Amino acid sequence: METKITKIQVAPAVVDGVIQYQIPIQENARKKVHPRSISDGDLISKWVDYSSERLWNIPSVKSIQRFGYLYQQGTAEADMVFDVEKFISIAKQLLVITARDADVLTETWHGTKEKSLDIVSRNYSILTNFWIIYYIYYYTGFLQGGAFYGLLSEKEVSDSTAALLQVPLSGSLQDVRSAIVAALSNRTNILQTIQMKIETQNIPVEKEFINVYSLVTINRDLTELAKRDKFIAPNIGGGSWDSLKFITLAELRDANSPEIVVEGLMSISSVPIGLALGTVIKTHSLFPGEKAIVTIETYTKEVTTYSLTSSVLDSSSREAEESLGNEINHSAVYNNEESRTSSYSISAEGKANWGWGSAGVNGSTSGSASNVAKRTVSSADKAVSNQAAKVSANRTVKVDTTSTQSVETSNRQSVVRTIENINVSAPLNFFFRQLTQLIVSLTTVRDAQVVMRTSIFDNGRLCRLEEFPDVFRDFAGNPDDEYVKKYYVLVIAAARSFAYRDLLDSQREFVIPDPEVVDQAIPRYKVNDELRFSSTALWQARNADVKLKVKEAAEQPLCDFDGILLSIANNTMKTEGIYVECQLAPADGLDAYSAALQLETTREKATANDMAAARGRQLTLAADLVVAAGTPEEKVQLFERLILPLWTAPKDSSV
Known about the structure:
Strand content: 15-25%
Oligomer: single chain
Radius of gyration: 35 Å
Distance between the termini: 30 Å
Number of strands: 17
Shape: elongated
Number of helices: 24
């Protein structure tokens, strides 16, 4: 009976990002919104303090330099800001929690606004063993800091991390330190060297450096830079410190003005659609009767190599999303473009900024919202492709073969198998291939909202499109309807331009009239809440690009998705799977005499098997006659005459 694998729709890996379009308040109307002026001195002082605080709280900055305190000063001075996903991973490796518990905690973390400490404290086992987990997590990061500065090799980090994971749950901070010291016993004063490097950690911003060891050092350096007319541009904390840039006081003064920012929420949904054979990574030949031990070592997503092997195409890690955001924003940083901290980034899951544009101070359309969306989609497609290539390069599978009968204990990343050539004349060849995964990525725009700010220090007022007239009236000091309508038209035009094309040709508008709000003076609009599409819509699309990409998926179901489809792209990534092919050598490698010997041996075994089969048939017939006999005496006589001679007769042992 043929077994078929049922084709099911796979849940996609989804990553979100935000595009922003600025609509400045015109010069002659600014006093209505922002009547109070601020002196240059106050602006500088206030901005240095504000930007220092925001810079200190950028996640990527935290991850670099927060591993000095515990080593130097102990628990009391430890900064309790930590990466929840890595902390949970450590707890899982220590067997404090099960893999299922780890998944539940991770999902909870992604869907809540609670503090990291509150999340992990939900699990009783983690709460009971919190400090030992935290010490090990902390020093794992400390070791990664050493690798970041080139002070430790990958093997030293791996070996030291393994030593940390051997510390018993009943251990103390001193036990954790001792484990590291023992693992790095051949490196004199290496921990002190790492500590000193961390304390003097500087991040590069253009051609300047800012010491991010503490809030005090950040404020000190930003104050000195301000004396040279260099100020951190707005959008601090909008992603990574890689996107930071400087502006002048004049630019800062101009940025410190009322503005309207229309934000569009984009998503990249990636779903696997099939496997393919990659290149041959190992070959091995066995002679007749020979055995070999095969050890397959695969990449891991734990601790030290996570950021190298995680991708938005098949996971939802923060490292992968941050890496993608940096890739997408590369051109924006290169071109010295501005941006703002997104209102979407305030949520628990924090959305990265992917694109920025502005209508200009006079409301011109030279930097139209549709161009922002087009540029962002193009950058996103390239970024996803680049990340797939980079991550695939680090997803390695190593196959070792040794002709030996003893196997050393392998680590958690290794799979050990024994292979054997049971043939007697021909070599057996093994070909090992790494499997690759074909992935379809759908880029959509699925939401829009508006933020109004009076200055760069203002977190802003957030509203939906249909709420804008009411919120803007209060924001601008209750202006007349014409004034409100003027900006509402710009807002709606910008939001509509985010959906600059629809590859499905679905005939559904991204922004539609809102029938629930009745306002004769200013008709209201909202984001269409019926933009859910099934995977079958992709098969029915008439767009040539969609047809081509979907055709590569054969008959594999894709995924349902939300929003207007702006782009579809296919990427190939390596997996940890191995495909093995066996091929018998075409020539047997025997001379005529040896070949004749093998033939005679085969005939001899075949004859013996035929004789054994005939004897079996004779015994069966004799047993039937015994059973058919009438009396017990007749049965005994027949048994002695028929079965005993057959059973005791010499027979060949070959079968």
